[in-house]
Design brief:
The chain is an alpha+beta fold and 415 residues long. The chain folds into 2 domains: 110 residues, 2-Layer Sandwich (Phosphorylase Kinase, domain 1); 190 residues, Orthogonal Bundle (Transferase(Phosphotransferase), domain 1), CATH 1.10.510.10. Helices cover 40% and strands 15% of the residues. The strands form 4 sheets. It has a 5-stranded antiparallel beta sheet with strand order 1-2-3-5-4. Helix 1 packs parallel to helix 2 and helix 5 runs antiparallel to helix 11. It is globular, with a radius of gyration of 25 Å. The N and C termini lie far apart (74 Å).
Length: 415
């Protein structure tokens, strides 16, 4: 090799070493800057939540992805936990506030209804086990530090899965709704509105002791607010209340009562919430205007819910269910009507609704427990989960949360 070639090779190597050094320095600066940002964010939004040592939490696999957050399963202190991170840095503060609110609700009596929050851990984004979700992994810099909420793993089945697969009975539906109304009564004492009570965020779990029936657990307080504030549309589009759709109206504790009424109707019928009633209204309007092609726009549907008391049809409640004699069905209709009043302050008090449902129940705790256990036995261990299920075949979440916001795009809403 000539002296000139040797000089060029050495010069190239020096440049490469400088480049590698600069890259390492940039990564170090990114890590240092982002961890300082995350610590400041935690101090501002979640000062009371403990900071956990990074080596005390083992992240195992990705489990679910929503519009704003991603959930992993993991191990903390020898037990299984759910680990939740924000998909974008600007959502980190909201995630931490969710953790604070969940911890607040879970104190004292609330412990039975919500998962325990263990604390916050700082994790490099690139070291999270993304598996087949490489697209989400590219949304943030690999060396960026992100805040992660570490919470109790809910050993149960989401309503979406339990009733969606035909396992839930009317007896289980009544018990789930009864417990949810008791939960709303408790939330009202804290002046908190969940704002996202839907099929994915309510779990049916085994009770703490054999023979005690089932226990309802509620997750995801990311949309929750203090009562009596103007917060606009929040939560899953299908479960939004008249005051949310009307805009400019305060959200109060009875907003959750409206959503639980929708959940009860859905558990009993297992039909799409709005499809049939919208079809009937469109048929009526077609006769009125003489236009066979008339169809309600999404804003018109929202207006009908907010101001014309458009509600899921009560005549679709089961008529031949041995557990629901005609007198019970009539009583259920009364409960649902009282949940769906247009004026929030006229809706039934959660405690009263719980008592009315209790009077309709004929099943024993053992019956309820066996219904849940039978369904759990039919599931694989992977499906028996805390936050949805990750589809290994497609690499996509089977229960990805819908985009939420104020856009009028039809794709935003599930009817």
């Amino acid at each position: 090799m000539s002296s000139l070639s040797s000089f060029r090779l050495q010069n190239t190597r020096r440049k490469l070493r400088k480049l590698v050094s600069a890259v390492k320095e940039a990564r170090h600066c990114t890590k240092k800057a982002t961890i300082e940002r995350e610590r400041l964010c935690k101090e501002l939004n979640a000062g009371k939540l403990p900071e956990l040592e990074a080596n005390s939490v083992k992240v195992q696999e990705m489990y679910d992805a929503g519009a704003f957050g991603v959930v992993f399963s993991g191990i903390f202190r020898g037990g299984r936990v759910a680990i939740k991170v924000a998909r974008a840095p600007q959502r980190g503060g909201a995630l931490l506030k969710e953790g604070v609110l969940t911890a607040r609700v879970g104190e004292g009596e609330g412990e039975m209804w919500v998962p325990q929050v263990y604390g916050v851990v700082f994790i490099p984004w690139g070291k999270l086990p993304w598996g087949k979700a490489g697209g989400i992994a590219e949304e943030r810099e690999r060396g960026e530090i992100c805040s992660a909420l570490v919470m109790e793993w809910v050993e149960g089945v989401a309503l979406e899965k339990f009733f969606g697969r035909g396992a839930g009975s009317s007896e289980v539906a009544l018990e789930v709704a009864r417990q949810l109304f008791h939960f709303l009564h408790y939330l009202a004492t804290l002046n908190i509105v969940h704002c996202d009570l839907q099929t994915k965020n309510v779990f049916v779990c085994p009770a703490t002791a054999p023979g005690k029936g089932i226990q309802v657990k509620v997750i995801d307080f990311g949309e929750a607010v203090e009562a009596d504030v103007e917060a606009g549309r929040k939560g899953h589009p299908s479960f939004q209340t008249p005051e949310m759709l009307a805009r400019g109206m305060p959200i109060s504790c009875p907003s959750d009562t409206f959503a639980v009424g929708l959940l009860l109707w859905w558990m009993l019928t297992r039909l799409p919430l709005w499809q049939e009633v919208v079809r009937r209204l469109e048929a009526e309007r077609r006769r009125e205007v003489g236009d066979e092609n008339f169809a309600l726009t999404l804003p018109q549907q929202h207006h009908a819910i907010a101001f014309e008391e458009l509600r899921p049809p009560l005549d679709l409640l089961p008529q031949n269910d041995a557990a629901l004699p005609p007198s019970s069905v009539d009583a259920l209709r009364q409960v649902l009507r009282s949940c769906w009043k247009e004026e929030a302050d006229r809706r039934v008090a959660p405690k009263d609704a719980a008592e009315k449902l209790a009077a309709l129940q004929g099943s024993t705790p053992e019956d309820l427990e066996e219904a849940l256990n039978s369904f759990i036995r039919s599931l694989s261990s992977r499906e028996f989960s805390s936050e949805g299920s990750w589809d290994d075949d497609t690499g996509r979440s089977s229960e990805v949360a819908e985009q939420r916001g104020d856009d009028e795009d039809d794709s935003e809403f599930s009817w």
